[in-house]
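Question thread 4412

I'm putting together a teaching handout and wanted feedback from people who do this every day. The idea is simple: show students a protein as raw sequence, then show them the structure tokens that encode its fold, then repeat with a second protein so they can compare. Below is the first pair exactly as I plan to print it.
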Amino acid sequence: MSDPAGIDPRGPRFGASITSVLLLATAVVGFAGASLAAWWMLAVIAALFAWGAFAGIRRHPYGLLFAKLVRPRLGAPAELEDPRPPTFAQGVGFVVTAVGLLVGAFGVAPAVPIAASIAFVAAFLNAAFDFCLGCWLYLLLVRARVIARA
């Protein structure tokens, strides 16, 4: 998409790489038995997902970091992409991590590392294989007319 309001498709992949590392660390800490530490780690990640979902992918800290430090060192992207699918994907990440936090807060300690693991799989798919699971879900919902295109 050559829309001037589009985003560099490498930006969300950069953010997914950082998120993957954080989620993997959270899952490891949680499965190792440090429930409270894992809960706080996941709370920070959930806040970052909420930031991306509600403020928009362009205003996300990883997007700003990519725009200021990484993108100037790269060539221009072949094309820009619509920011709505990655923004929706941030919302999906927020829901998954928020559910893990909520269930964990009610005493089900394994919910936190399990939610971190589920979110890790999605972030890793984006970081390693350029497959955004949340974006794919967005497109399915648009095609099914559950979400309006514009």
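The second pair follows. I'd like the answer to focus on this one:
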Amino acid sequence: MPELPEVEALAGYLRERAVGRHVDRFEVAAISALKTYDPGPEATVGRRIVDAGRHGKFLDVVFDGDLHLVVHLARAGWLHYRDAFPSAVPLKPGKGPIAIRVRLDDGSGFDLTEAGTQKSLAVYLVTDPGQVPGVARLGPDVLSIDLPTFTERLRGRRGQVKGVLTDQQVFAGIGNAYSDEILHAARLSPFAITDRLPDDRVAELYEATRQVLGDAVARSMGQRAAELKGEKRSGLKVHARTGLPCPVCGDTVREVSFADSSLQYCPTCQTGGKTLADRRLSRLVR
């Protein structure tokens, strides 16, 4: 799932490539992906793209006249920028992974795609991003707050620290992958309880959050959209590296699996050498 660094980089790429261009055609191939109906897709035609940004993990493409295309890429969505499209033939609904195609006046444009059968890509055309329910519920952007605010919000939601870090109503922008990386950098167990963390450990977690996300943004900015996934994978130390050696201490990276997700961690760096119980296997044993 694209998280804060990748969405920031996609917005940066659109600012570089698409800002100033006018929309020639807005095509919808997956009706389920478009969550709004007024204004409709035709409202974008002829409008100029004036900016691109993000709200947490939501991408925001801004058109003149206060119209916003707000996109949540979910688990399997992505944005593919095309310097030129292979055909002028309109998309056929229900065919292939392309959900939305935006053609621009210079022949370029972008596709919003989604792989797999579980369709969660969400696209909104609104006059105010706050009209998108997910945006309206967002907590503060995690890179925009100071240590006292971070501490207050972290301790204000009692729970396992990984779950609190990824709660978008607490902090906007952190997902499954970067929460694993942040906790590894902070040398914290993903199951540590937020309101039991001493001040020094919260401060270390805050610094790790800023370091991990800041470094990821720096690596991602300037990359083409097609290269961002590979760039993300290249910078990961524990996430999606189960069974590989930890690059810090050499211990084997372990995994805890849940019904529809998993987390990765290093026992030596994060849990005092203790291997955490795999929740999926524990349920089977019982």
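Top answer:
Good format. For the second protein you could add a caption like this: The first strand starts at residue 23 and ends at 28. The CA atoms of residues 181 and 238 lie 6 Å apart.
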